[in-house]
Amino acid sequence: QVQPVESGGRLVQAGDSLRLSCATSGRTYISYGWFRQAPGQEREFVASIRGGDGYTRYADFVKGRFTISRDNAKNTVYLQMNSLKPEDTAVYYCATVHGSTCTTSSGRYNYWGQGTQVTVSS
Questions:
Q1: Residue pair 58/68 in contact by the 8 Å Cβ criterion
Q2: Cα separation of 78 and 99, whole Å?
Q3: Tell me, what DSSP letter sits at residue 62?
Q4: Which of 4, 13, 80, 84 is deepest in the core (most CB within 10 A)?
Q5: According to the model, what pLDDT value does residue 49 have?
Q6: Are β-strands 76-81 and 66-71 bridged in parallel, bridged antiparallel, or unpaired?
Q7: Quick check: 46 and 62 in contact, CB under 8 A?
Q8: Cα 99–28–93 angle (5° rounding)?
Q9: Which residues pair with 76 in a beta bridge?
């Protein structure tokens, strides 16, 4: 079972840090992606980490501020978000796919979590 479950979203102030978690119950070889969707906007890619070698990719707007990492023993992936901005406000979704990929395309992911709300006040 690779259905992801996100946690960690909450209300923070601009400049604060926040860590999101994405847990799965299986030990299948999988890759993870984080996406976000703000009200009235399309869902967009944030970061991904490839199964196996842990190669990572980031959207340009989060480079240097967000870090994706994984704890294989816990089957959990984290999204560390620093220097948060009001424009980072969105529902953040974790997605998984079997195998080794670092794709930015949401259509390539098979399983999606319910999302966790991140709100950044100015």
A1: yes
A2: 19
A3: G
A4: 4
A5: 95
A6: antiparallel
A7: yes
A8: 75
A9: 23, 71
Residue carrying structure tokens 């959207």: 59
Give the pLDDT of residue 2.
66
In angstroms, the Cα distances linking 49 to 10, 15, 35, 60, 64 are: 23, 25, 12, 15, 16
Per-residue confidence in pLDDT tens, the chain, 122 aa: 568 999 999 999 999 999 999 998 866 678 999 999 999 999 999 999 998 889 999 999 998 999 999 998 888 999 999 999 999 999 999 999 988 888 999 999 999 999 999 999 99
Question: What six digits make up the tokens of 4?
Answer: 């992801």
The amino acid at residue 83 is: S
Distances (CA, A) of 82 to 13, 15, 41, 66, 116: 11, 7, 22, 6, 17
Question: Would you call 36 helix, strand, or coil by DSSP?
Answer: strand
Pairing verdict, β 30-37 and 18-23: unpaired
